[in-house]
Amino acid sequence: RCHHRSVAMPDIPFPTFCAFLGSLGLLCVALVGAWCQHWRGGFSLDGGSRTFNWHPVLMVTGLVVLYGAAALVYRIPSTWSGPKLPWKLLHGGLALGAFVLTVLGLAAVFRFHNSHGTPNMYSLHSWMGLGTVLLFSCQWAAGFGVFLLPWAPAWLRELYKPIHVFFGSTILMLSAASCVSGINEKLFFSLKNGTTEYKLLPAEAVFANTLGILILLFGVLVVAALARPSWKRPDSDSLDSRQ
């Protein structure tokens, strides 16, 4: 007789994972701020290069970290019982905050380009980034209309829910990829004349490359948490939910 044993993954407590992920997100925000402050000259609103520095900080904070936090709201066990409306408002509010920061980040880079006569929307990074923001806008509007407003019928919510979840993970990974490509593009533009070239891997390149890896790690861990069955909210008709 053959005995088949299923190999189970270690059951990491969600609060522990969430604390680690929150620390990682804060680290990403701190590192992108330190990069712009130490190597790129700091921040201002005068339309110069220091205005551009708001762009990476706001995009990483909003489109990656805050958006990732919004995606994980329904993985918190305390959201699995009781009224769902407060958690819907928190989920939508975090996503809206991420969207506001993202729009401000776009405004910073467009102002910088226009002040210096630099063309807008010519690079792969800009195409990917703007496409991600537009998809994010549609995702938020559709989620608001279907899940938060009371007139959507139950069958429509059931139909749209897996689509909403799929695009939520997709947008997060596109956001991380856009941020990483933006970091790489900035290094290529900045580390050339009068500085140590990028290919020689100066300290700034090592720092920014590390930041990019951490951003990707944050996105992957959020998507992994969303896909973990034991952390998913039980269906409303399941035995666990009724209990």
UniProtKB/TrEMBL annotation:
One Gene Ontology term of the molecular function aspect: metal ion binding
InterPro entries associated with the record: CYB561/CYBRD1-like (IPR043205), Cyt_b561/ferric_Rdtase_TM (IPR006593)
Major site of localization recorded for this protein: membrane
Record has Translocase as a keyword: yes
Signal sequence, start to end: none
Topology of the protein relative to the lipid bilayer: Multi-pass membrane protein
Reactions that this protein is recorded to catalyse: Fe(3+)(out) + L-ascorbate(in) = monodehydro-L-ascorbate radical(in) + Fe(2+)(out) + H(+)
PANTHER family from the UniProt entry: CYTOCHROME B561-RELATED, LYSOSOMAL MEMBRANE ASCORBATE-DEPENDENT FERRIREDUCTASE CYB561A3
Subunit structure: Homodimer.
Protein name: Lysosomal membrane ascorbate-dependent ferrireductase CYB561A3
Species annotation: Sapayoa aenigma (broad-billed sapayoa)
